[in-house]
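The following block was generated as part of the benchmark described in Methods. Ligand: heme C.
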Amino acid sequence: MNIFTKLSVATLSLSVAMYASSTTTVPNAPTKYPAGELGKMVKLGEDILNNTNTHPLTKDLVNNKLQCKNCHLPDQNGKPGAGKGMSTLIGTATVFPAWSKRQGTIQTLQDRINNCFMRSMSGTRPIIDTKASMAMSAYITWLSTGLPIKMNAKATISPYNFDKYVKGKKKFAAIQKKATHQNYLAGKKLFETKCASCHGINGAGVPGTFPPLWGKNKKGEWLSYNTGAGMSKLNKAAVWVESNMPLGQGGTLSDQEAADVVLYIDAQPRAAFTLKDHLFPRAKMGYYNTKVTTEHDSVRSNFKAFGLNIDTIRGDRVIQ
Ligand code: HEC
Ligand code: HEC
């Protein structure tokens, strides 16, 4: 090996190490908005992520009582999606266009936002060339100011979420497959001691202060994410909860505690997701960039996906 080869091997391992460490520490959000009209667009997007279900441009597209920032947590300055835990939106814009296994297509950032609208927000996809859609993607793109573009051939996920998410999903799938009624009872107890003070014993939250986790209000409206959302999947939700909850104390639950509390929350009633209800008419429903056109998820099927029977886990027959 001559000196030049040795040198390039050393440089290569150095840059690999730098990439690995740079994707474990989430950078801060930028502090300066762009000038002029672009800055206005970014601020509009920020406002929508904070007030999604009441903002005039998006309220009719949301069918529950959530805001984007409830899952894409704010940083210490209140910038939605700039929090450091799982599901940060810092770095997200750098991965697009990206491959999506769920849709079987290459997606843009706007396509990815639309997915959270029909699943996490239980609503309707915004039309891509409307102000609301552009504003949200402008804000999320701004959050990645200065970060290197590296399109993701595996998933539509920020480099700061990717490793944690892939490893975490596997780890929690293995734990959830072994769940029993005892884990459900342990999850219920944990929910009552560590979560209910904010989210309410009935999961309904406190309007305007603490977001709802499941169920309906007195008017019969569903309160939280539907059964097609990432948060309704027993492994994905556990990764998120372990990283972010209880609020301000992310990383304090053990793996088994995070798994059990999610088993409890996701065993409660929530809106079913049937993709065909969200497809037509296109002019109203917004474009869905997908090759997969059938999907039906219920609380029951989400448990079955891990080999679990919802009736046995709950110990009753409340779930249809
Ligand atoms: C109920 C929780 C929840 C709400 C509310 C929610 N999301 Fe998400 N979102 C997630 C989760 C969980 C993921 C990652 C998991 C996945 O890919 O399945 C995600 C992923 C994303 C991504 C890809 C980023 C990445 O690095 O993975 C974008 C962009 C996004 N959401 C935008 C939005 C926007 C905009 C809103 C509001 C309209 C919103 N989300 C509302 C839970 C939520
Ligand atoms: C001190 C109050 C507090 C406690 C305790 C708390 N949370 Fe939260 N939780 C919040 C707030 C506030 C948000 C939304 C963050 C935001 O909008 O800034 C949230 C968001 C969530 C979300 C995503 C949004 C939704 O409504 O679906 C889930 C899931 C969640 N919490 C689960 C839990 C679990 C499980 C526990 C117990 C282990 C817990 N929380 C404890 C305050 C709390």
